[in-house]
Each structure stands twice: as C-alpha cells, then as structure tokens.
Amino acid sequence: MIEIREMLRLWLQGRGLREVARLSGTDRKTVRRYVERAQSCGVDRDDGVEQLTDELLAAVIAGVRQSRPNGKSDVWETLAGQSEQIKEWLDQGLTLTKIHILLARRGVVVSYRTLNRYATTELGFGKRRTTVRVADCEPGAEVQVDFGRLGLLPDAEGRRRVVKGLIFTAVYSRHMFVFPTYRETLNDVIAGFEAAWVFFDGVFAVAIPDNMKAIVDRANATDPRLNDSFREYAESRGFVVDPARVRSPQDKPRVERCVPYARSNFFAGEQFRDLDDCRERAARWCRETAGMRIHGTTRLHPAEVFASDEHPKLKPLPDTVFDIPAWVNPKVAPDRHVQIAKALYSIPGDLVGQRLTARIDTATVKLYFRGELIKVHARVPAGRRQTDPADLPSELTAYAMRDLNTLQHKAEADGPHIGTYAAAVLEHPLPWTKMRQVYRLLGLVRRHGADVVDDACRQALEAEVVDVGVIDRMLTRGVTGTQLTLLPPPAPSRFVRSTTDFAVRRPS
C-alpha cells in the first residue's frame, strides 16, 4: 500500500508515467494500471494528495488486483494442476525454458516469470543445498590439495602447452604453495608433494586432495581405495590421506578459492622462460605476495600465522629421497618366469598360470602371492633375465642354467666310464650345444642300468668312438661285451692328388 501511495503521490505532483516508474522503481505499465484505476475512482490532480485515503487505496488495489480467496492467482492454480508433470520434466533434466514451451503446447499459457516463481517456490527448482562453515583444525593438522589450470606455457620444444598448478593450502593459516606442472601423473604429484614439504619446511599430519586419478584408484565416500604407490609414499612421509568426495568441493573449501586466485594474481600476464622458471617464481610469489596479503577471512598475514603457529607443529622434513615404486600384476609363464618392465624374473614353486603382485623400484623387484612375499630379485635392465637356480625343478636346473659342472657330476655318479664319456662329449668349442647328448646318455642309464651303460662307454672309449648314438645302438642290439674295432680309413678318391704335387722347389 505504501508503494502504491508513493506512485499516486508522484503522479498527483504532475510527473509523467515514465518518471514515476523511474522514481518508484516500478514498471511503467504497472504505474499506468494503477493511475487509470485511481482516475476511475475519482482521483483528480487538482485535488492534491489529501484525497489518497486508505479507503481509496483499497478500492484502487481491489480494482487492479483480482480477488484471491486462497491467496493464489488463477494462473498459480493452473500451474498447480500441472505440478506432477512439471516435476517429472524437471527430474528428466529439462530446462525451465523447454517446460514453458511444452506447457504452451498443452494450452497452459503463463508467463515465464510466473512459471519460474512457481517452480522455485513449490517444486524447489534451483534451490541450493544448505551448507555450514566447517571449523578450522588445529595448527599443522591439515593441508588441502587441488589441481587447477593456470594457462599456457612453452615446453622444451617450444610448443605452448597447458600448465596446471598443484596447489597446497594450510587450513589453519591459509598459507599456500603452488607447484606448476604439465601433467597429473603419479611422479608429478609426488614431486609436487616433495616440493611442498620443502616449502613449508615440514610435513602436515593430514592431506585432503580431490579424487585425482594419480592418488585414488577407486573413489568412495567412506572407504576410498588409494593408489598403492602413493599410499606407500604417504606412509614413508608420515601423513594420512583423506580424499574429498566426488564432486564435493565443500570438502576442501580452503583450497578451492586459491585456484582462481593463483591463476589471476600469479600466472596471468606473466612471461616465463620455461617450467623451472615458472616453479621458482611461483614459490617466491607464495612467500612474498600470497603469504603477506591480508586474508579476506582471517584478516591476518598467512605467512606470519604459519611461521608462528603452524610451523612448530609440523613433522620434520624427510632427509631421504623417496624411490617411487610401481605395482603390477604379472602372470607366471610356463618357464616359471614373470615379465616385469621388459625383463624376466624367476618364481619359486609351481605357480604357472597364477597372477602375482609385483613391486618394482630402481633397485629391487619384490614378488607377492596372495599377500605373501615369495621372492626378491635385484632389478635388471630391460631384455635381461634374472634366474635363481633354486627356483627351477632340480632335474631341469642344470639344463636351464647351462650348468656343465653339475651335468658332469651327474654322469660321474652313474659310473666312472660314463663320466669320462660325458666329458669327451662336452669337449667342444661350444659345449652347451652338446648337453642334449649327455642327457640322452643319462636316459640310457635309466633305461638299461648303470653297469651296462658304463661297460658300453668303456668299450667305446677304447675304440675312440665318441658318439652317444653308437652307445644307444650297442645297447639296443645287445652287442655289449664284444670288442669294438676301429673302422679302416676310407680309400682315397681317385681325384685326390698327392701332396708332393704341390711342392715348390726352392732355388739353391
């Protein structure tokens, strides 16, 4: 009523409708409706403002606004009849503009503004979830971590690439650190954490990152599964990882506003030589600019609060370099080896076809089966093989490892002549190429007995016959015990010339 009285008073003073609308903050068409209704009720500019009684204003309002017994307009009641359909469309993800079009097709013609007010008031459209401000933690307890896009930066090859900032914000003091990087791999994330610990000169008790894939393998609100390598890194540095929920920035609000702040205040408009220059200047900006600003919430200098309250509470800075491991799940091949990083490693026991868990770093390879450590190897370069003879079956160890001494000892154990014969077979520039013949000789021992094979080897040695095939034929034909004779030398070919034909007479 006060607003309507003010509109009519300005009009009675002789002002035009446009000026009345501007001064009263009301639409010009609304002003016209009220003025026309007031004139129909007998209001005249010549009678002054005294004629604006409460009874007259009530009559003007009643004439402009239709009667609403239940406090709702007819249009509102019409929309209420379409409430279920409108709600169904909103649940399907339709925009309110599209719903306005669909209602018109059904013959429900209302203004978009009225539809928007109805959906907002009655159906909760566009209603934001109620949030509360979480209390700050104790000094040195938490640091929140987030990735944010900074801009474009040339790499070593001169290409302009997107550079991102791994941003750390101390929850208590709001002191922040920015680590620019091109990628979001595990190695880059751990490098960022290591640089942050150096910048803060200590380690926070809890780190709250978002669900970056380099850290979290499986997101879960209550039991997230962390990457094995990063979990091992966190254990070595002594901090706990508590990832935020998926699409829940309110879980790490202290770092969220730092991302656009770093992008606009640090990176925008600057020229950097390379990534190293960007990182160096980012650390300096964090100390001198971001750290010394008056924070909008705490109204204090973050760097000073950090130095006085938080730094003494941090865990000591690590003095060792973390060797980043990799975890893989290789399958045991029929040769009792697994392939890891293009190299082969032997496995003890009969685990052919089983999947193992392998941890590999720069020095060692650890192999686990069902959570139990079963083998540790020294790491070898790609293309090489690391085989422990104890991992192979005893009957195959000598062959697999080309162990000539062990094979020789096995032959000597069956008989002295067998051992001598085996040594004669292995007397070759490439002795491992003759190992199969020795194994054939040992097979004859198992088939015919050691005494018979030893006697056959004796006879063959006396006849200077070094051929395991001859021993096999002797035993098969039962000719052992008879004296072997050397075959006569073959007759020379008729085309062979005497050596004297090539003699050269030297001059006297």
From TrEMBL:
Superkingdom of this protein's organism: Bacteria
An individual GO BP term: DNA integration
SUPFAM superfamilies cross-referenced by the UniProt entry: Ribonuclease H-like
Pfam family, one: Mu-transpos_C_2
PROSITE patterns xref list: INTEGRASE (PS50994)
GO MF annotation terms: nucleic acid binding
All copies of domain Integrase catalytic, residue ranges: 135-310
Record-linked NCBIfam families: transpos_IS21
Family: Belongs to the transposase IS21/IS408/IS1162 family.
Protein name as it appears in the record: Integrase catalytic domain-containing protein
Organism encoding this protein: Nocardia macrotermitis
Lineage: Bacteria, Bacillati, Actinomycetota, Actinomycetes, Mycobacteriales
